Amino acid sequence: MNIQIRSAWNAFRQSPHAPKWLTWAAINVSIAAYFGFGLVAPASVSKTAWLPGETTHGHYQIEMDCNACHDPGRSADGPSGSDVMQDACIRCHGEQLDRAKDTHPAKKFRDPTNAERLAVLDAQNCLSCHQEHVPEQTLTMGLTLPADYCWHCHQEVADSRPSHRDMAYDSCATAGCHNYHDNRALYEKYLDDHHGQPDHLELASLPRRSTAASLSGVFRPDRPLAIDQADHPATQSVDQRVLDDWATTAHARAGVNCTHCHGGNGDTAWSEAVAMESCQQCHAGQVASFQTGKHGMRLAVGLPAMTPDQARLPMHAGQAHAQLDCNACHPGHRFDTQFAAAEACLQCHADDHSLAYRDSAHAALWQEELAGSGAVGSGVSCASCHLPRIEGETGIWVNHDQNANLRPSETMARQVCTHCHGLEYSLSALADPRSVASCFGDAPTERIESVQMAHAWFLQRQAKRDARLKKP
Ligand code: HEC
Ligand code: HEC
Ligand code: HEC
Ligand code: HEC
Ligand code: HEC
Ligand code: HEC
Ligand code: HEC
Ligand code: HEC
Ligand code: HEC
Ligand code: HEC
């Protein structure tokens, strides 16, 4: 304490107003501490009281981690509308939008010819279209702007495309037509290339995965291990069931021993619990993708694992407190991927779509594949659609982000359905809410027109070109 402050303090202590001032100061300090704590407290501490409104379907799981989006350095009074970091959106979603070949990335609008458009709608800022904590104006996919804004920038489309002339100005983003970001399954060339396909392709099959090729880290598959080669410490009592289960797995077949997962091999101590980080040594890609979807997003920001009792979607009460980690679908020690692909999901999920799965044609195909009467790859489980097998640099691997192709759902058409169905049929089924609700137990009632329209457009263009060539 320097001298000036000390003498001021002494003078103050002797003043008649001291007690009142101290009470006021104490109240202020505790208010500041209350709010300050809200800013710096660990994400697991409840901060619901500071939320201005319900958080979106995409983000509510991590809403307690205010600093994931709000910059705590910018305002002293707690999170506000002006301290949201666009960088944060990009950090979590940038890669995903790049992969989707975003049709409207911020950089597209750097061109000065767009200045006039941007003055009305700043398309370089995520927040222009995705606000938070405003449930009354939030649409699906966190959109907080009515979908007719496409018109603002694309009014000329009715002139350049006669086919679009009579369309409603708010119909651009209707299912099966266009998306703002992700048009991987909707651009003209792709649509035309898949024109005229039958509803059911002759060769209807999903690719096989190449798990060994997708391994990360230093471990490389080795000779198969037998029960008597298990390397758990002699002091550790182990149920015979554990040994039997382990011995039948792909792990034992590839030389993965007890201590690879449990530790206890010299440097580390044996631990009965096995955390996600242990799997991560060898399966980094599966872990990373798990963390960007709704199953693993809480673990990604350091919050405790998601449990069904916190969900907004309907869940089976019996699983209310099940932890969403790797073991939720891969219980030790079988790591049975057939169980994981449908039975595991149905232990938790209880919405109409999930419950309808068992009666669908797809489920019958899956049962046939399991029974051996159907060809390998001909069955359709929950995982076939939601944890799709993706072509990567190292071969086919399982994307554990079940949100990556969920919305907009046309992404799923390209990644999954078109292995077995024509594109037009796939888009039509995905656009039909009845078909989705029955888990594709019903054929689509209406046909999406985009495939036909794209084809007609290319034919017209070709005809014009031919006519020009024929002119003398
Ligand atoms: C997933 C990102 C995200 C998280 C997590 C988040 N917010 Fe926000 N918040 C936003 C966005 C986006 C806005 C809107 C910014 C704008 O209006 O420009 C916002 C706005 C606000 C506002 C201003 C509302 C208004 O009406 O002006 C407050 C207050 C706020 N947030 C508090 C919180 C608190 C407290 C937490 C943690 C308990 C939190 N937020 C967590 C993204 C987030
Ligand atoms: C800590 C990482 C993180 C941050 C920061 C973050 N998000 Fe998200 N966001 C997610 C996850 C995880 C999901 C849920 C999975 C999914 O839908 O991809 C999600 C969902 C969404 C969705 C909805 C998808 C749907 O189908 O409902 C939108 C839109 C979105 N985020 C936009 C934003 C914007 C805009 C910001 C910046 C204000 C932002 N996010 C900040 C991780 C993040
Ligand atoms: C001009 C409006 C607009 C802006 C600006 C915008 N979005 Fe979107 N966003 C949409 C619309 C519309 C959807 C609904 C799906 C679609 O049409 O692609 C969407 C969907 C999403 C989704 C979920 C679906 C998907 O394709 O993954 C994410 C995540 C997302 N936006 C993130 C962002 C981020 C991050 C930014 C900033 C870099 C941003 N958005 C800027 C309009 C916008
Ligand atoms: C802020 C202005 C703006 C808004 C809003 C906007 N766009 Fe665009 N859009 C552009 C620009 C700029 C381009 C690229 C130049 C062009 O092709 O006209 C483009 C391109 C496109 C393309 C062609 C993409 C390609 O690469 O083939 C489609 C399709 C499209 N937009 C659809 C939409 C839809 C649907 C919406 C509403 C969900 C929308 N746009 C909203 C400015 C906008
Ligand atoms: C929601 C259920 C679910 C969760 C949670 C889950 N998995 Fe999976 N996993 C599956 C299913 C289903 C398959 C098999 C999919 C197939 O055969 O196409 C699979 C396959 C795998 C494979 C082999 C497939 C490949 O990519 O070649 C590995 C490795 C794997 N999971 C690791 C993990 C790890 C590590 C975690 C925790 C981060 C995890 N899984 C969490 C359902 C899940
Ligand atoms: C691929 C990783 C992995 C390998 C290899 C592995 N474990 Fe485990 N082990 C786990 C996981 C994960 C759990 C937690 C089980 C759960 O929650 O479903 C566990 C649990 C256990 C438990 C305590 C709970 C129980 O089920 O009895 C024991 C004991 C155990 N393992 C012993 C072994 C022995 C002995 C071996 C070698 C023969 C082995 N483990 C190989 C991952 C592994
Ligand atoms: C030391 C490396 C290593 C660790 C640690 C490890 N795995 Fe594996 N995992 C493998 C190998 C090797 C394979 C078999 C690859 C093949 O098909 O040849 C495999 C296969 C799998 C499969 C596919 C099984 C099948 O029948 O196709 C799943 C699921 C899986 N691991 C999950 C996990 C989970 C969950 C953990 C953490 C509890 C884990 N692994 C830890 C190396 C490891
Ligand atoms: C331990 C319980 C549990 C298991 C097992 C489980 N899930 Fe989930 N799942 C959840 C919870 C909880 C959520 C988040 C729901 C919410 O936000 O309301 C979720 C979210 C999802 C979503 C995203 C929904 C959305 O609207 O964004 C899909 C898709 C999904 N799960 C599919 C599956 C599939 C497929 C499997 C099996 C391979 C599976 N789940 C296994 C509990 C589980
Ligand atoms: C043939 C592909 C397919 C199969 C099989 C499938 N789903 Fe879905 N699932 C979808 C599509 C498409 C959507 C809707 C995406 C959208 O438009 O919002 C969806 C939506 C969901 C949702 C979100 C529901 C909501 O109300 O937001 C969950 C959870 C889910 N599926 C879980 C499952 C489970 C669990 C199974 C197996 C029992 C399963 N799905 C089987 C394709 C499939
Ligand atoms: C592995 C191949 C395969 C995949 C992947 C697949 N399907 Fe199917 N689907 C089939 C087969 C085969 C049938 C016909 C079964 C029968 O008639 O017995 C079918 C039937 C259907 C039906 C008709 C049900 C009826 O009773 O008429 C719809 C709708 C459907 N699929 C939609 C989809 C959608 C949407 C996707 C992607 C999200 C998809 N399917 C993915 C193979 C597949």
TrEMBL record:
The keyword Calcium applies. GO terms for biological process: anaerobic electron transport chain. It is an enzyme of class 1 (oxidoreductase). One of its GO terms (molecular function) is nitrite reductase (cytochrome, ammonia-forming) activity. Keywords: Calcium, Electron transport, Heme, Iron, Membrane, Metal-binding, Oxidoreductase, Signal, Transmembrane, Transmembrane helix, Transport. It holds the Pfam family Cytochrom_c3_2. Its EC number is 1.7.2.2. One of its GO terms (cellular component) is outer membrane-bounded periplasmic space. This is nitrite reductase (cytochrome; ammonia-forming). The lineage of its organism: Bacteria, Pseudomonadati, Planctomycetota, Planctomycetia, Pirellulales.
